[in-house]
Specification:
Length: 550
């Protein structure tokens, strides 16, 4: 692995100038390395972070990767790491024209990393430097504690999705000085809306009264306003004081709660374990936004490598080569999900729709399909709009907001399913739905969605840790419950309970489903099942897992 030569670096700097002219924003400094296929195989398990701590699972993945490579020799053209400065790796056999395309793709990623608000907590840190310090700390502990270090890493990694990523993000995004006092926030955000459930007209009138009081008397006007509130709502003061009681945010971050409250970890002879758990937790928090923005991130980079390279004079003579490579990367599969293709097409669609003013109230009120198809107010700025999308959304918001019927119709997208033809004993694929609602739900079901597990209580008698899984329509994957609970019991130093929801029974409806078009009469569409749920409690004690109904 070595830095790219000066010729390739000049190409990269030229790409930076063109990218900035198009509106992308990123730091001046960046590091680019040329790597071999073997380097890529060895870096992949470490998420391309060369300085990340060593762990035996990484070695296993390297061996698996080498075996796959011997059978199917292929590797990515590039990969980029979100750190300061940004680091990117390039295959050593890329020609210059391909590097131009790839550099634009990488610059799209860097722009996304450094401007999307879901990466806010990573903007001020050099993760590769921190990873190197962590690697040295773990190496030192291995020399002292031996294999116990790897046990602690394994137990900690079984919990590394039980972190309060959104709480950390809220701390970084919250302004240093609030414009309003907590009393004002509680009154308008909670008391009126959640407790009193006032009508919108009454809510607006209350805002007008508050603004008028502030205009007349400033902070004193606020006090005068709340005297009136207290007269109308005598219960307000008591409810506000109750709401102001500090909440233990660590209860939403199981790893943090264990670090702070585990008597086992806080014993003098075990405090070295806290260092290991904290390293695993911080690494998890660092990579949380990347897994939550896969479609947007790859789509944004693909949008810019196509947009900028098509304007670049260095494409001359390589149009067919570019078309072949670009099609392989951004082709939309008929079945399955390609984040590069979906994200890129969504950004193009959003840009066009915004340029035509189709996110206006005037367009949204149209019901006639022909009028909607011909609508073009010409009042929007599509490029500016997608930059705001890039800054403020993650994959869930991106898909949930912009995957609409016009988009699915334009690209002929559908939800596919398969059914067993028992006569021929083959699977038959069919179009289940062309509705944007169904297609959007299929995409949302494939997004990363870690379980919301919170700390419920610590038993005063035996010190048992009780956790609650907030059921959101998806049960936990039971294959992982044992290992996760085993790791928790070790790190907590005692019994652990986990309450969750599981399937009780699945009942199929009695009515006969219609025969699929074009198939044998004996082949029927799969029936919709009705699922009954039940609440259960898992208990891990002395490395033995038990399960019971709640």
């Amino acid at each position: 692995m070595q830095l790219i030569d000066q010729h390739a670096k000049r190409i990269m700097e030229g790409c930076k100038e063109r990218a900035r002219d198009a509106g992308l924003r990123f730091d001046d400094e960046s590091l680019e390395y040329v790597v071999t296929n073997r380097d890529l195989l060895e870096l992949s398990p470490k998420v391309m972070i060369p300085t990340m701590y060593d762990y035996w699972v990484h070695d296993v993945e390297v061996l698996q990767g080498k075996g796959r490579y011997e059978l199917y020799p292929n590797n990515p053209f590039e990969t980029v790491v979100n750190t300061r400065p940004a680091i990117s790796f390039y295959n050593d056999n890329n020609p210059d024209w391909l590097n131009v395309m790839i550099f634009y793709h990488v610059l799209g990623h860097i722009d996304f990393f450094q401007n999307n608000l879901f990466f806010r907590h990573t903007w001020d840190d050099d993760f590769t430097g921190q990873a190197l310090a962590d690697k040295r700390a773990i190496a030192r502990l291995r020399s002292e504690k031996g294999r116990w270090v790897d046990y602690v890493i394994e137990f900690a990694r079984s919990l590394d999705n039980l972190v309060d990523y959104h709480g950390l993000l809220a701390e970084r995004l919250r302004p240093s000085q609030d414009d309003f006092t907590p009393r004002v926030d509680y009154y308008f955000d909670v008391f009126l809306q959640d407790e009193k459930k006032v009508r919108i007209s009454d809510y607006v009138k209350e805002i007008e009264r508050f603004n008028e009081a502030r205009r007349r008397g400033g902070d004193a006007g606020e006090d005068e306003f709340f005297k009136g509130v207290q007269a109308r709502h005598p219960e307000f003061r008591a409810m506000f004081e109750k709401a102001r009681k500090p909440r233990d945010r660590a209860r939403r971050d199981v790893m943090r709660f264990v670090l702070e409250h585990s008597e086992f970890l806080n014993r003098e002879e075990n405090k070295w374990m806290k260092t290991v758990v904290e390293i695993v937790r911080n690494t998890s928090l660092y990579f949380q936004p990347q897994i939550r923005t896969k479609i947007m991130n790859e789509g944004w980079a693909s949008y810019w490598h196509e947009t900028l390279f098509m304007r670049d004079d260095r494409i001359a003579g390589h149009e067919v080569d570019f078309a072949r490579v670009n099609a392989a990367v951004t082709a939309m599969p008929r079945v399955g999900l390609n984040p590069y293709a979906l994200g890129m097409r969504l950004f193009y669609f959003i840009e066009e729709a915004a340029a035509k003013g189709r996110y206006s109230r005037r367009f949204l009120n149209l019901l006639d399909a022909d009028q909607r198809r011909r609508f073009d107010s010409g009042a929007g700025n599509g490029r500016e709009f997608i930059f705001r999308v890039r800054e403020n959304l993650n994959d869930f918001l991106f898909v949930n907001t912009f995957v609409e019927q016009d988009f699915t119709d334009k690209h002929d997208l559908f939800v596919a399913d398969r059914v067993l033809d028992e006569k021929r004993m083959v699977w038959r694929w069919y179009v289940k739905s062309r509705s944007a609602v169904d297609y959007r739900q299929m995409l949302l079901d494939q997004l990363y969605h870690p379980p919301l597990v919170t700390v419920e209580a610590v038993d005063a008698k035996d010190g048992a840790l009780s956790l609650q899984h907030a059921f959101e329509g998806k049960p936990l994957v039971t294959d992982y419950v044992h290992n996760t609970m085993l790791g928790l019991e070790f790190l907590w130093g005692g019994k652990v309970h986990l309450e969750t929801t599981e399937v009780k029974a699945i009942r199929k409806p009695d009515q006969k489903q219609p025969t699929l078009p074009g198939l044998a009469p004996t082949v029927e569409a799969p029936e919709e099942a009705e699922i009954q749920w039940q609440r259960v409690r898992y208990t891990m004690k002395d490395r033995k897992l038990s399960r019971g109904l709640v």
